[in-house]
Amino acid sequence: MAGILFIISAPSGSGKSTLVNQLRSLTSDLEFSISYTTRAPRGSEQDGREYHFTSREKFQQMAAANEFLEWAEVFGNYYGTACHSLDDAEARGKDLLLDIDVQGAAQVRKAKPDAVSIFVMPPNPDILATRLRNRSRAEGSLSEEIIQRRLAQARKEIGNYEKYKYILVNDVLDRAVEELAAIVAAERTAHAGQAAENTSGRITEYASSEASRAAEVASRCLQLNATERLRPVLLSFGL
Ligand code: 5GP
């Protein structure tokens, strides 16, 4: 594709939606793929804005017709990224962000090896449990059984972190937003540099101190460079 394909995954309750919303308000030319789902809308969610809410029957028809780049069952509901999301972004030469779970991310990586993957970690199980309880309470459906199931699922998902290029720990929101925006900026610079190198043999130079700062922040989030920061988080989840 002409643009960059970003994948972001995180266990439920990691604060990913807030992060993604802030990123979208800070970053131009980044399209957000609206997934199809069979789950019911929550709160103020609107069909066609957060998701395309659809019946299981329609979803299965789309899957059978190979209309999904990837799809997965998450907490008993189907979620999928339509191929047309990618085709539309490609036609417009835009970067595209997919907010998908670890199963979907694995499928996309296979189909699109150049995709840039980012995993968002909650800082520890206690904070995750508090966020999950607060969210359930706000939705008027606090069930300790569901919270425990989501915590167990989170642990499983976090076990997949090594498959992602970048890792963020969402402990301080502003910092996580800065890191996410830096990753997007650094990948764009690298992508543009590659394109320039392909046409003129020129080597990438950072055009501004802002770009070099983004490269530095993003580099700290590379999974390979984040070991020290991740160790206590992984330990807290028993990993
Ligand atoms: P929620 O129901 O809380 O909005 O999302 C539940 C989970 O489904 C999240 O981890 C979210 O990333 C994931 N998800 C949302 N859309 C898709 C999709 O199109 N494909 C896959 N595989 N997962 C998705």
Can you give a write-up of this model?
This protein is an alpha/beta fold. It has one domain (5-33, 95-236): P-loop containing nucleotide triphosphate hydrolases (Rossmann fold), CATH 3.40.50.300. Helix content is 50%, strand content 17%. The chain contains 9 helices and 9 strands. The protein has helices at 16-26, 56-64, 83-92, 102-111, 125-138, 144-158, 173-200, 209-221, 227-236, and strands at 5-9, 30-32, 36-37, 52-53, 68-74, 77-82, 95-99, 116-121, 166-169. The strands form 2 sheets. The protein has a 5-stranded parallel β-sheet with strand order 2-7-1-8-9, sandwiched between helices. The protein has a 4-stranded mixed β-sheet with strand order 4-3-6-5. α1 (16-26) packs across α7, α5 (125-138) crosses α6 (144-158) and α7 packs across α8 (209-221). The two termini are 36 Å apart. The mean pLDDT is 92. Bound molecules: guanosine-5'-monophosphate (5GP).
